[in-house]
From TrEMBL:
Location(s), subcellular: Membrane
GO cellular component: membrane
Record's bilayer topology term: Multi-pass membrane protein
Record flagged with keyword Transmembrane helix: yes
Protein name listed in UniProt: Solute carrier family 51 member A
Keyword list, A-Z: Membrane, Transmembrane, Transmembrane helix
Naturally occurring in which organism (per UniProt): Seriola lalandi dorsalis
Length: 338
């Protein structure tokens, strides 16, 4: 009799374990949870964490709004919208990440919104450097006798044999076009991805050769590299003349936003899709990876927002005229004609 009871207890325990394993396995395969499911599963640590991150996102947006007011009051009209666009990169990404953290099923759309905004920022940063010199004509007047070094990253940093290009109105137009194409095509491919998603064709987790994501994402990556190249060329050329305007730390913040919002997110998502990041109900492995990415971005963009505010809050006076002797304080990054 006792032996039968022991066997029954073992069978019951095994059945419960199997049910628990099946429930966990099912939750690991499910879609991201609804917002109400997250709220119901939050413990004390989760409540504190979500509250702090939400506070950071709100503060980032408030700091950005305050900075917009300052820019409209203190900055010349030709630079207002450009500097506001560049300043808004970190706060917008932090806000979108906060929405994605609370509403995991909207993560794809929040990430796409952040990526589209930053695609515009890439172009605006290039225009900002030209406007800091005084505009297209002033840039051509200053740099007309110099040449552009095009063997820079991310495309051609190893191609030292590339010739130096004369600075003309045509070359300036091509630099702008290289960044502008990304701002336009990124939005086009985002709209295409959403349309395909509604048809069930686009899925970020579908990495098969027949999936739309495996074709669209690499092509967008190529467009990104092409767009970053003109910005790097212009920065290498103007970094000396714009040193007094803190262009080097500004460029560093721009690059940091790029790395954290694009590369870091891609690495975490790949690890999640490969199963390296374990699932934790109610989050599947992929949803948990997205959640970790959103939480990291909120913290990082909050810090970048504060640093960016210090860099751009200054008097926007015109640059002094370039002296004929080309001393080290005002000269362009000049290259001798070979």
């Amino acid at each position: 009799m006792s032996l039968n009871c022991v066997c029954d207890n073992r069978a019951t325990g095994a059945s419960m374990n199997n049910d628990s394993n099946r429930t966990t396995a099912r939750s690991c395969r499910e879609s991201p949870p609804f917002a109400i499911d997250i709220i119901l599963h939050l413990d004390i640590f989760g409540i504190i964490l979500y509250s702090i991150l939400t506070f950071m996102a709100v503060v980032s947006m408030l700091v950005f709004i305050e900075e917009c007011i300052y820019i409209y009051r203190k900055v010349p009209s030709n630079k207002k919208s450009i500097i506001i666009w560049v300043n808004g990169a970190a706060p917008v990404i932090a806000t979108m990440s906060c929405l994605g953290m609370w509403i995991p099923r909207a993560t794809m759309f929040t990430d796409m919104t952040s990526a589209c905004y930053f695609a515009i920022v890439v172009f605006k940063f290039l225009i900002m450097m030209v406007e800091e010199v005084g505009g297209d004509q002033a840039f051509l007047n200053r740099a007309g006798r110099h040449k552009l070094k095009i063997s820079t990253g991310p495309c051609c940093c190893c191609c030292l044999c590339l010739p130096h290009v004369a600075i003309t109105r045509r070359s300036l137009f091509l630099l702008k076009l290289g960044s502008f194409q990304f701002a336009v095509l990124k939005i086009v491919f985002t709209i295409l991805s959403i349309v395909l998603w509604t048809n069930g064709t686009f899925d970020l987790s579908d990495l098969t050769i027949t999936g739309a994501a495996i074709w669209i994402n690499p092509f967008v990556g190529i467009l990104t590299i092409i767009a970053l190249w003109p910005v790097a060329i212009m920065f290498m050329h103007l970094r000396t003349v714009l040193r007094t305007l803190k262009i080097i730390p500004k460029y560093a913040m721009y690059q940091l936003v790029l790395i954290l919002s694009q590369l870091q997110t891609a690495i975490i998502n790949i690890l999640a899709l490969n199963g390296t990041i374990a699932c934790t109900p109610p989050f599947s492995a992929a949803a948990r990876g997205y959640m970790m990415s959103q939480q990291l971005l909120i913290l990082e963009m909050f810090i970048i927002t504060l640093v960016t505010r210090l860099l751009y809050r200054r008097q926007y006076d015109p640059l002094p005229e370039e002296e004929p002797d080309n001393n080290e304080n005002t000269k362009m990054a000049m290259l001798e004609s070979a």
